[in-house]
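task queued by scheduler; priority normal; single chain, no ligands, no partner chains; default sampling; output format set to structure tokens
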Amino acid sequence: MDAKQWAALIHPAIAIVFVFPLIGIVVNLAWQTRQRRLQLAEEGGKSKIPPVVGREHVRIGRWLTGAVVGVSLVAIAYGILFKGFIDKDLFRTNPSSATFIILMFAATIASLILLYRATERLWRAIFAILTSLGLIILSFLDKLGIANSSWVFRRDDQWPISHFYYGLVASILMVISLAIVREIYQDRSNRWRTLHVVLSCIALLLFFGEGITGARDLFEIGLWAMPPG
């Protein structure tokens, strides 16, 4: 295996070793949190589930958002690095585009960090939008005229079963969930909590799809990389 093939394993390795275990932990804590809330809502209700599960769900959920966005950026960076910076020698042939791409990666990461730190609703909305836009822009550089073809393996003609599109939507949903955490605990009408549950269920289905389509794509890309005969 050469450096490019080893680098291709970074994204799936992070997903398998770190992201998917976090998903299982978050789902388990979410279920316990809901069960505790339902038990306490009953007349004279008590629960043996410790109150700490709610805080742990939020804490690990915040880790999960960072992990999902991070692993998405790793996958995007892999395509851009090898197909753009190395194969196209982007720094020499188009230094302005190379600089723009690097700045976009930096801005996306900075926006995510600032989203974690923001407390005001307006700023959380702004940084959530900027993080999502960064992921979208870096994924569609060819649509902006920076690349003459897609440097990210997208399957545009098969988007309903695309690993890339599942991951992009899941990442944005996780960013939204992180941005509305404060509203979930401040809203007595439970509208924000309901929205969070709906978004999380959609993201969970997408993660299941990610596991299937990711294995398919890794196998197919591996076949392409093999020497003929």
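post-processing summary
- The CA atoms of residues 85 and 98 lie 7 Å apart.
- The chain has one domain: 3-225.
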